[in-house]
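Appendix B. Worked example

We walk through a single record from start to finish. Start with the input: the chain for Cytochrome c oxidase accessory protein CcoG, Marinobacterium maritimum, length 455.
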Amino acid sequence: MEKIPVVQEHTPAFAKDGKFHVRLIEGRFQNLRRLTTWPLIALFFGLVWIQVDGTPWLLFSFEQRRIILFGSALSWHDLPLLAGLMIAGACLLFFMAVAWGRVWCGFACPQSIWTWLFIRIEDFTEGRASKRAKQEQKGLTTELLLRRTAKHLLWWLLSFATAITFTGYFIPVREITDALFTLQLSPALGGWLLIMAGLTYANAGLVREKICLHACPYSRFQGVMFDRDTRTVAYDVKRGEPRSHKRAQGNNSGDCVDCGLCVQVCPTGIDIRNGLQAACIDCGACIDACDMVMDKLNKPRGLIRFASETELSADKPRFMRPRLIGYGTAIVCATAAVLYGFTSTTSLLVEVRRDRNALFIQLDEDTFCNTYRVKVESFADTESMINVSVIGDRDYELFGPLQIDMRETGSAWVPYRVCASDVDTSRSELAFNFNGLSVAASKQTTFLARPVPKQ
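Next comes the structure step. The output line below is what the pipeline stores for this chain.
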């Protein structure tokens, strides 16, 4: 397979000391990006902060050993369902990469989403990109110091909100906020929040595109997944070259007027006119900037657009390819498996352990007893009382609570004794049965004794 050349251009020519200011632009792709990112941001915060009956929509509770998902409780034994979701998501990511390049990076990646939020705050506090560039040349003034202080305060505020929300997926967020306001935050939790907030502040505010260039593995293996039919943000060289300014345009000039807007709006600071580059995240900002210029010049849009190598060379592009079909099949299979798995989740989890200190207890000549420890966990909120019984190939007598109150016992171990008479084998099968209003479970174990010889 022919490899697509990738330009490794990391620092824009106009950047001063490696720093450049991203110019915000409006357009159809930026609107599409907002339609994608704002629901994701709302979902990220809403899953933690919105509560139903005192519980959030999503909580990985290590203390209760369960996962709360939209009011339903899942056991840790249901974690493979989340693995299935991750497999389906990964296949979808690969499908999108083969079909449309790095649209995940440009439209849905958390690093890109938070970077755009931080750029918005920077634009609000310090002004537009052109103003910020001029302020950089003038040096630090009192006004600029106040504006930058406000910017960094807002950055830290958003970083702490992000850190608290992320931690709220594992610790109830109300507990975190109560501990913050009452100054009773533990050193471990406080340190974790500071680390998470610091990483968010550094990644989205200071490092930004360097994460995409040097730290993100997806930006590296994307080149392996591209082929000549992958549609990425591309510059139409045949139409745009040779470049010339509007006043100097002639009959042999291309449509590109070398305005530089496509570079100024790029969040990674590349020049898309140099060809496919590893730093391009396919956010479409340069497309919106170029379309705006083409509209002013009364020229057709699409000088920069989503196009494949095949399409730019005037050949007939293909959409359905073997890899796309394979990834699509994997998405369907993984999604179907997860949906089926959710129909048979664990509602009642039971454990039965024999007492290892004594194999059995002999009460008289023909009566033997075994001791067990039983733990019951109910993941159905409607189940408060669980009935316990035993069944086997002989008459067993159960000593212990015949009903377990889940509201009081929770997941504690409960001791039981099982006795039987006229035992003629050293080992026999025994089953503990657990029944609630709508759930039932059974656990097999063994009953040990010394056989009584028959007369």
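Two observations about the output. The CA atoms of residues 125 and 149 lie 9 Å apart. The longest helix spans residues 142-167.
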